[in-house]
From TrEMBL:
Protein name, per record: 6-phosphogluconate dehydrogenase, decarboxylating
SUPFAM superfamilies listed in its UniProt record: 6-phosphogluconate dehydrogenase C-terminal domain-like, NAD(P)-binding Rossmann-fold domains
Organism: Dinghuibacter silviterrae
Domain (6-phosphogluconate dehydrogenase C-terminal) ranges: 181-469
Entry keyword set: Gluconate utilization, NADP, Oxidoreductase, Pentose shunt
Residues engaged in binding substrate: N105, S131, G132, G133, H188, N189, Y193, K263, R290, R447, H453
InterPro entries referenced in this protein's UniProt entry, alphabetically: 6-PGluconate_DH-like_C_sf, 6PGD_dom2, 6PGDH_C, 6PGDH_Gnd/GntZ, 6PGDH_NADP-bd, 6PGdom_BS, NAD(P)-bd_dom_sf, Pgluconate_DH
The protein's annotated pathway: Carbohydrate degradation; pentose phosphate pathway; D-ribulose 5-phosphate from D-glucose 6-phosphate (oxidative stage): step 3/3
Length: 471
């Protein structure tokens, strides 16, 4: 029998899988990877630095024979049926107490099902979110493992070593029971959708509304990335404006079709929020606008039927300050809504998600990393059970000064016919959440009128129904 010597195995040697293994090898772990495509195994070995213990194989059995027991291995394959297919191939080769990690973007309900299925067979299973893209996988991602706590303890040294670090703290921690790891990653991606939508709207206001050039846009976003909105997404946005197209010589961003793709995780976030229920309108809007963008032929036709305004802002005084404050507010509301969803889901599904650790893990390595996460971390450290970040006094002190300028920017953008659905959703959510009274009493009266759905009163307890039509 082949000698068992490798610390960790990877199934799927695409760029993410390969880079994670190379990262592990750089930290002193011996690693082995399997892919049906032998060229990918060869690419893994040839990419390793001298002295690293790295091997690629083309059969699952070869990999499992060479892993030390209990085995620690991870899948990075497309979500859905491919994960179940890999598990079906793996199970006959596994031994009791082996650990299998799904590191892809699986839907949390699939992860919950697989946890029970694998546990019943005597195997450990974990769902784990990984954020940071190809570069992050190689240099230090944000890692969100959940599920089997015993299994986490056995893989924690490896995950801690390869994760991003902020202030010396690793951007990995146990995210909770059940499918918590994949649920946290799903909401992370929903927040990512939201912030990207908000940035694109600010781009439209500056470009369409005020005629900003790509150089001016680069300079502004680069300046913002040096201040209180420093973040990965603001940073890369500044970079995007400078990239030239090799074909035309134009700036590449101007040659990209305005039709956004998606892999479904934003939609999953919205769908689950509706089921909980918990309001996340900025994320919902981001998903919707991507869908609208896909209707490009219809949009082009509609533009001829409804000639638009000039899209020029009526006033550009203090525009950069207005845009900064509106983007800042919208970004905070995106985090607020995503974290509120995690809080509700943790309670609903008994996941015991530690919100302070979620925010700490997101501070480095991941796509939504931002200096704005620091005050959020402090809020959850002070009150781990905080239902909504807007109820924290320090968060309120951050939000309140941004409101007036956000209203001014939205008024200018709407007046110019520039679509700013995400920014509008952010402000409307804030206005609704901080309202002691909402006009939903009328809605409840209407529901009782046509459907006898009953209502509650403000002056006495109980449930009531009224015959609203005159007799």
């Amino acid at each position: 029998m082949a000698q068992q010597s490798f610390h960790f195995g990877m199934i799927g040697l695409g760029v993410m899988g390969r880079n994670l293994l190379l990262n592990m090898a750089d930290h002193g772990f011996s690693v082995i990877g399997f892919d049906k495509d032998q060229a990918k195994g060869q690419a893994l070995e040839s990419s390793a630095a001298e002295g690293r213990v790295v091997k690629g194989v083309s059969t699952l059995k070869d990999m499992l024979d060479l892993l030390e027991k209990p085995r620690r291995l991870m899948m990075l394959v497309p979500a859905g049926k491919p994960v179940d297919d890999v598990l079906a191939d793996l199970i006959p080769l596994l031994d009791k107490d082996d650990i299998v990690i799904d590191g892809g973007n699986s839907h949390y309900t699939d992860t919950q099902r697989r946890l029970k299925y694998m546990a019943d067979k005597g195997f450990h299973f974990m769902g784990m979110g990984v954020s940071g893209g190809e570069h992050g996988a190689r240099t230090g991602p944000s890692i969100m493992p959940g599920g089997d706590k015993d299994a986490y303890e056995k893989v924690a040294p490896i995950l801690t070593a390869v994760s991003a670090k902020v202030g010396g703290e690793p951007c990995v921690d146990y995210m909770g029971k059940g499918a918590a790891g994949h649920y946290v990653k799903m909401v992370h991606n929903g927040i990512e959708y939201a912030i990207m939508q908000l940035i694109s709207e600010i781009y439209a206001v500056l470009k369409q509304g005020a005629g900003y050039t790509n150089d001016q846009l680069h300079d502004l976003f680069a300046k913002w990335d040096k201040g209180d909105m420093k973040s990965f997404l603001v940073e890369i946005t500044a970079d995007v404006f400078l990239k030239k197209d090799d074909v035309t010589g134009n700036r590449l961003v101007d040659m990209v079709l305005d039709k956004a793709g998606s892999k479904g995780t934003g939609k999953w976030t919205s769908q689950d929020a509706l089921d909980l229920p918990i309001p996340i309108p900025v994320i919902d809007t981001a998903v919707t606008v991507r869908t609208i963008s896909s209707l490009r032929d219809e949009r082009v036709l509609a533009a001829t039927l409804y000639p638009s305004e000039s899209h020029k802002l009526a006033d550009t005084k203090d525009l950069e300050t207005l845009a900064h404050d509106a983007l800042n507010l919208g970004t905070i509301m995106s985090y607020v809504q995503g974290m509120a969803q995690l809080q509700k889901a943790s309670s609903e599904w008994a996941m015991d998600i530690p919100l302070d650790k979620v925010v700490r893990v997101w501070r480095g390595g991941c796509i939504i990393r931002s200096v704005l996460l620091d005050p959020l971390y402090k809020a959850y450290t002070a009150n781990p059970k905080l239902e909504n970040l807007l109820l924290d006094k320090n968060i309120a002190a951050l939000v309140s000064p941004l409101i007036g300028n956000t209203r001014k920017l939205l008024a200018l953008a709407i007046g110019a016919g520039i679509p700013v659905a995400g920014l509008t959703a952010a402000l409307s959510y804030f206005d609704a959440y901080r309202s002691a009274w909402l006009p939903t009493n009328l809605i409840q009266a209407q529901r009782d009128y046509f459907g006898a759905h009953t209502y509650q009163r403000i002056d006495q307890p109980g449930t009531f129904h009224t015959e609203w039509q005159p007799q």
